[in-house]
């Protein structure tokens, strides 16, 4: 009987696709394996086997697969279940989940390469203009891809041109299918089998008396063999014997030595020794640990709220220890990779080489290796630290998931789909594995704390800092008043200056926080009021002094700073607002002897960007560190005594129902970097509005009060966690079409959901990369079915897309948008 497979393609298609396979292939293939399949006219994709079956599709004649890739499944059945949940819940396709879950190296690519036909003489006069452009480009490049041709002729459909060029014998096409991942191979040597006994050694050395270098190599090899069990690398033998590559090669050529290759991991870390004693917990930590374990007994997700520096990490370490001693895998999720540097070190002290790291700054090769190590359940991947994508690793025996800093918004993927929240997706994954799930934070999200209040989550807390260090003293400074009294130096109040002076005198360190990067967010002409805008986005260009550039933070557009106004020509340009660059510059002038560093997106590019700055600050090569929210997250600096928040207002005035919660969390977290060891830390918060209730709550460490107030507001205005929300963004390059489309869509939504629909409204930046944006928000009551609501929205989208005028408008869903 004819056999078939249904596969997931890594593209945003709603349905699975069916392909024909042979009987043998049907016996071999299992769900989660990869196959290369033809798609459309000329594409080849890597697809994932979903299931094998014998019922032909009704609507089309299935093609055959090209080939099977790999002998084992790449993805296991729990993952597939998890992907299904993500696709359904976050309103995207399985293909989109597939594409983002798997390292791109596993997604074999087909690229139609266009080559120049060298075997014929081309009559250039015989070519049309567009054909000539392609031909000319091929004089400079050995090959072109289809999309590159599109760019050259500035037109989408280039197949007709290519066809003509083929007919005219100008070009050749080449279909290339290639695996991107190349494992790193290391060369090893051993004695050829004929020479392995002692007696042979003597004969061998006899025969080499006239080649002293070669016999030295043989002797060294014997010594290395005697002193270690491991295979011996060529480089190692070179070093031990002092012999060159050429000497070793001649022994290989003589058949005395044999070379062989072993695949090795690129991902190795220093000092993976481990074996440090796990710290003994203090009574508060013990109490929390007991509460957590009890809660795990009843299989509940458990939230640990512990003030900053209360020693939450050490509690997690105990849980991890227990998990891996039962032979299970542990996953430790962090919101941002800036944090891993310190954490890798801490976890390696305890768990040594069992710790692996997985994140997007690592190369494709490195990610593939961690993937394979987890898939094969190797020791070295028993504890995985990673940012949100580590959730997609092929765990088989997951026993524990820790989601540290669970309140962090960066756990939510914004673009592209799947727009999932890693915390929530991790809880679902934990369920599928029957693993324990631990959420931790000093400032839990309103959602999680609400779930505790309702009894849905278990709870543990630590209310004291480790070592009984007192919580930092937080002082609010009114910048309006200070300005009036002329007590400001640049953006520094007198109080902040005084505190910096004493802190530096005591040999302690300072952190300065400003939530904007660059020098100034706006450049303005004082004569005519003009300020340079991004040509592609509706936003002012940010001035970066270091490069004398104006840059767009949304699309990357940049231009040199002009000497005079582009509108009126006056040289009267001034800046408005300030970013980290300006703080760094001012502080350098105010404290010329202090060594100042800066940590923001601009200074931390590259794989080790963070590490360098964090290490320099840890080792006190820097006295003052200026940074954006990047430095708020869980970093443990021993010597920081003062934290200055340059301006809290921009955080508070954000037009978003979550702004106050977020401001509380951010400020409490930055403040928590101060005074973590002995002396009580000091925090100065500068603001034009020091009487704001959130600032008061931060300064009195009143999480509970903040929670109560915010929850009340959410109840009043029907926002999460009381209601669920789905944000629908419509996107198009034509302003009028977008407006009309958004009206149509929201009206249809209102017909079904009535007053629970908000908008359409422009977001604060209403045009990005030349695309206009409009948002509609649908609020969903607790007693309303979420799946049914999503289905209704989908139906509306279908009718929308059936109107040809709207078809080109993109519709983007963001479920649980934050
Ligand atoms: P948190 O994650 O709650 O901010 P950390 O786990 O970073 O706190 O702990 C703060 C500091 O206290 C760290 O330097 C840590 O090594 C130290 N510490 C925490 N618990 C212990 C313990 N039981 N014994 C010794 N030192 C501890
Ligand atoms: Zn002007
Ligand atoms: Zn832009």
Q: What's the number of helices?
A: 26
Helix proportion range: 25-40%
What is the topology, as strand order, of the major beta sheet? Answer: 14-15-13-16-17-12-18
> Could you tell me the radius of gyration in angstroms?
31 Å
- Number of DSSP strands? 34
Quick take:
With 818 residues, the protein is of the alpha/beta class. α8 crosses α9, α11 crosses α12 (312-325) and α25 crosses α26. One zinc ion (ZN) binds at residues 534, 536-537, 552, 554-555, 557.
What features would you describe in this structure?
This protein has 818 residues and is an alpha/beta fold. Helices cover 35% and strands 22% of the residues. It is built from 26 helices and 34 strands. The strands form eight sheets. The chain has a seven-stranded parallel beta sheet, with helices on both faces. Strands 19-29-28-20-27-26 form a six-stranded parallel beta sheet, sandwiched between helices. Strands 2-1-4-3-5 form a five-stranded antiparallel beta sheet. A hairpin with a 4-residue loop joins strand 22 (542-544) and strand 23 (549-551). Helix 2 (77-89) runs antiparallel to helix 15. Residues 175-181 have low confidence and may be disordered. It binds adenosine-5'-diphosphate and zinc ion (2 copies). The site of one zinc ion has 8 residues, from loops. One zinc ion is lined by residues 525, 527-528, 530, 565, 567-568, 570.
